[in-house]
Amino acid sequence: MIIGSISEDTKFEKRVAITPDLIKKYKSLGLEVSLSQGYALHIGIPDEEYKNEGAKILPNDEEVILKSDAILQMNIPSDKILQKLKKDQILIGVLNPYSNEKKLKELFLKNIKCFSLELLPRITRAQSMDILSSQANLAGYKAVIESFAYFQKAIPMMMTAAGTISAAKVLVVGAGVAGLQAIATAKRMGAIVFATDVRLASKEQVESLGGKFLTVEGSENLETKGGYAKEASDEFKKKQEDLLRETLKKIDVVICTALIPGKKAPIIIKRDMIDVMQNGSIIYDLAASQGGNSELTKVNEIIDNNGVKIMGEANILNKLPVSASNLYAKNIFNFTKNLFNEEKKNFDIKLEDEIIEKTMVK
User: Fold this and answer.
1) Which entry of 37, 228, 245, 289 is annotated as an active-site residue?
2) pLDDT at 227 over 60
């Protein structure tokens, strides 16, 4: 059996699904690996590194698709590539079925088995495959670094003979994996950190990292059985808005990370809240590609609202493609290993396996 991976459109996506260190692991399972020429040159990995580990480098994407039983990607390929996929092939990646429903239905009609890794259940056995956690960790870290680079004051408290510089105050909206990493990174750099989340269970995690949790009066634990946030009631949103409006008056940097799986990102920071923020403050919105947590967020633009900068990138991990690829490649290897039957030497789609059943797009 052969697995293949083709180059992503590097204008939008610089991460890759297979790194050289995993080629031998795939081969040990009984799988051959085919890649398109120049597969990871854009992140400094020459074809020779893949060849030396035992991968086959083919001249173009079409050859890889033609000869592969399974295609491993970061994102769903272009329409042109999807048309070339063969009947009974397997496609694994972050396919975002909520946005790509039509494309995936067409693949279903060709009997192409599609697995979308962001749908992984939050169970112990799936932790090594959890792409949301591995990628969000890096995103939370990088969001802090990027926002601090734009902030025109010092971050830690500094005491000098000329006077004292106060520590920057940071608010993290959403205390999932990205948010918790943002809290930890901001604290390491000397900031005073506040955080808010609809899930009361996150309070202990925030405080363990040195953050101060903002509790909405009368709040309930808005958490699904899978550990994700669920949509809040109108009453909760109103109380949260009042608390945030007061808090934002003294905040220097806001990191937004709040997402609801399968839905548009909730707008948490309204324009009138931004209006009360201090001149020179920064809002860095990690939810930008899904609509944003700030009312003024625009993808890949820096909006200046009376001296407050609102920043939102479509894919912040394009700024950390090597680290992000290393983690993603391990996640997708572990998923492929679970899907592949080493005894029969074929892909064995057992729907009684919760991991396979939940990630398979039907």
Assistant:
1) 228
2) no
